[in-house]
Amino acid sequence: MTSTSVIGKAPSITLTQPVGLLFPGQGVQHAGMGRQLAAISTIADKVLTRAQDILEMPVRRLCFDGPDQELRLTENLQPCLMAVCWSAFEAYRDRFGMDGVGVVAGHSMGEITACAAAEAISWEAALLLVRERGRLMADAAMSTPGKMLAIVGLLESEVEQIRIAAGAAGGIWLANFNAPDQFILSGEAGAVALAERLANEAGARRVLLLEIPLAAHSPLMGRASAKLAEAVRALPLRAPRIPLIANGTGRAIHTVRSLRSELSGHLLRPVHWARTMTSIQALKVATVVELGPGRVLASLAAKHMPGVATWNADELLVEGAE
Length: 322
Fold this sequence. Notes:
Layout: E1 2-6, E2 13-17, E3 19-23, H1 35-40, H2 42-55, H3 59-65, H4 68-71, H5 74-96, E4 101-106, H6 110-117, H7 123-143, E5 147-152, H8 156-166, E6 172-179, E7 182-187, H9 189-201, E8 206-209, H10 222-233, E9 244-245, E10 252-253, H11 256-264, H12 273-282, E11 287-290, H13 296-304, E12 309-312, H14 313-318
Parallel strand pairs: 3-4, 3-11, 11-12
Antiparallel strand pairs: 1-2, 5-7, 5-8, 6-7, 9-10
Helix pairs in contact: 2-5, 3-5, 5-7, 6-7, 7-10, 8-9
C-alpha cells in the first residue's frame, strides 16, 4: 500500500491508496445538500452553475433551499443529486488528484455518476441521462405505482420467504442486496405493505418504508427501462479508464459493450451492492470516499471491510478544509 498526502490551510489529510470512490443514489438527498462545499470550493460551485445551465432548471435553489416537497420529485431529485455528487468529485479531484484511485462504483442512480468518474462518458452526457432516467421513472410511477421497503437484520433466505409470502398480495421483488443482512424489496403497494408486517413479525432489526413513490429495480419499471435503453444506445460511451464495478454483477466492467448492457438494464436489474463491496475488497482498497450527501455507502463499506478508512464528502472536503 502507498499513501498520498495533500497539504493545505488545514492540517494535511493522508489517504492510503488504493482509494475507492463511491457515489450514492436516490434516498440520500436533503435540502441544503452541496451548499457548504460550494461555499468554499470554486470548482464545486462552478459545477452546480454549469449543471443548472445544462438542465435549464433551478438546481442551486432546489439543492440549497428545497423545498423538500419539490426536491423529492423524482424528475428533480435525480439530476440535482448527480450535480451535487459531481461537484464533490471535482472538488476531490482538484485536491487529491486521481493517481491513487483504484476503483469507482455507484449505487443505483449513482452508477451513472461513477461511469463519468471512470471517464466512460462525459459528465454532461451523464447528467442528461440521469435527468431522462428521473423523468421516465416519474412517468412510470404514475402508470404503475409502487413502493420500496428496507429490511435490516434478517438473512437473505428469510427475506426471500417474506417476499414469497407477500407475493400473495401482488408483485414484489428483491431490488437491493446491500449487505448480508440488509435488503430492499420493491413492488406493488399491497404486497409491500404485507412484507412490512411480515418482516416486523419475523424480528427484523429495522423495517423502513422508503419515501420513494415507485418500485425501482423491478419489472414495474419495464416501460421506463425500454425507453432508457433507447437513450443508452445513442450514448457515445468509452471503455472505463478506472475499474468500474457493475451493480448488476458486482464485477468490473471492461468494455463498451458490457457497459452499454449494464446501463440498458439498469432499471430492471437488482443492485448487488454486497457483491460490489466484495469486489472492492478484493482490489485491496485501503480508503473509501463517498462523494455525495451523507455516508450511507461509507458506512456499508466500513461494515463489509473492517479496517478500511472511510470518509464522506463533508468530512474530507468541508471539515477537512477548515
